[in-house]
Structure formats: structure tokens, C-alpha cells
Design brief:
single chain, 121 residues, alpha+beta, 2 domains, five-stranded antiparallel beta sheet
């Protein structure tokens, strides 16, 4: 999950019935598809199925397989939070569906904001 999933999840936990324009999802709803969106100053990331797709300026796209670090600290008993990961470069195929999904999320959000589609009517 990522930051965009927090509000839909909280509203779901509160059993609120609502209509929204959230791109995020309630992570406890049936049919939730695990994925995460992240961003830095210049890079945009999309994580799905242990593949991190990184979109960078000048149409540069890189992909990495993410797995728990082998030399990471052992987890405290009863905890399942992993904070250290290895990033293994993945050669992207010519028709990269994860890159297309990542681009779609960010382009759609940009369009919605630019056209003021998130404004209350």
C-alpha cells in the first residue's frame, strides 16, 4: 500500500459510505490489488508484484525486482515489517505493461489536476 490508500482505508474502517475521486483503494476491501505509488524530486515509482518501475526525466524507465535484503536485521518476534530491500535490475521487455500502468497513473492524475476535475462541483 502507499500514502494514497490511507484515506480510503480509514473511511472503510469507519464504515463510511461515500463517493470519491480517490485513486487510492481501501486495502481491506475484497479485490484490493496490492501496489504502491511513490515519488522523489524527479523520479516516480510504481511497485507491483515485487517489480519497482522507476520513471525518470527524459523518458528514462528502469525496473527492479525488490526482495527483502539478505543481510537485513532480523525481525523482532511478532513483527512483519521489513525495512531493508535489495533492488535487482530487471531488463524491461519492449512491451512493458507495468511501465504502461505506472505512466497511466501519473498522467491521469496530472490531467485530473490540470483540468480541475478534483474540484468540488
Amino acid at each position: 500500500m502507499s500514502q494514497i490508500d490511507i484515506m480510503p482505508t480509514v473511511l472503510g474502517l469507519l464504515h463510511f459510505s461515500y463517493r470519491s475521486k480517490f485513486i487510492g483503494q481501501d486495502v481491506f476491501r475484497e479485490g484490493y490489488q496490492p501496489r504502491a505509488l511513490m515519488a522523489t524530486y524527479q523520479d516516480l515509482g510504481y511497485l507491483q508484484d515485487s517489480i519497482l518501475t522507476v520513471l525518470s526525466p527524459v523518458r528514462r524507465i528502469e525496473s527492479y525486482r525488490i526482495r527483502p535484503a539478505k543481510n537485513g536485521a532480523p525481525l523482532p518476534e511478532g513483527k512483519n515489517f521489513i525495512s531493508k530491500f535489495d533492488e535487482l535490475p530487471v531488463k524491461r521487455p519492449g512491451n512493458d505493461s507495468l511501465a504502461s500502468v505506472a505512466i497511466s497513473y501519473y498522467q491521469t492524475t496530472t490531467w485530473l489536476l490540470d483540468k480541475k476535475k478534483y474540484q468540488r462541483h
